[in-house]
Amino acid sequence: xxxxxxxxxxxxxxxxxxxxxxxxxxxxxxxxxxxxxxxxxxxxxxxxxxxxxxxxxxxxxxxxxxxxxxxxxxxxxxxxxxxxxxxxxxxxxxxxxxxxxxxxxxxxxxxxxxxxxxxxxxxxxxxxxxxxxxxxxxxxxxxxxxxxxxxxxxxxxxxxxxxxxxxxxxxxxxxxxxxxxx
Length: 182
What we know:
Number of helices: 7
Structural class: mainly alpha
Strand order of the largest sheet: 1-2
Shape: globular
Low-confidence stretches: none
Mean pLDDT: 80
Helix content: 55-70%
Radius of gyration: 17 Å
């Protein structure tokens, strides 16, 4: 069972890396589980095409949806549980870094009532997935309105989160392959 999740995870990472949008992000592989640095520099997109990005997101969401077998947190938990004890600290660091990126207050905007709302990358990504890209979820109307109101800030927060998780997943998949886990 644990290798099935790792195998599916590696397949999703292969699909993402082979996609036209994903090809522009290269990472170095090594046997050690390396942490992707959380800086703006790795997020720079050389070529941005909205249709290619949307196509990329179809596979990408498999990495972050909780019920997906290829969920990055599920794979990290398996590696932590069944992996070598020396890797556990690195896996915890990777989880922490992904969490920090997803929950970071990227920036904020104020509304007409003077209330300040933070633009968080994970929330913006969820709003985009559930309200704009894949379905039109009526229950998320306020989140979608906020996403649209935040405009370029929301898009940049989402893009940073997506690229960060993508590059971290590529590093992790490379390590899994080099170790012969799948």
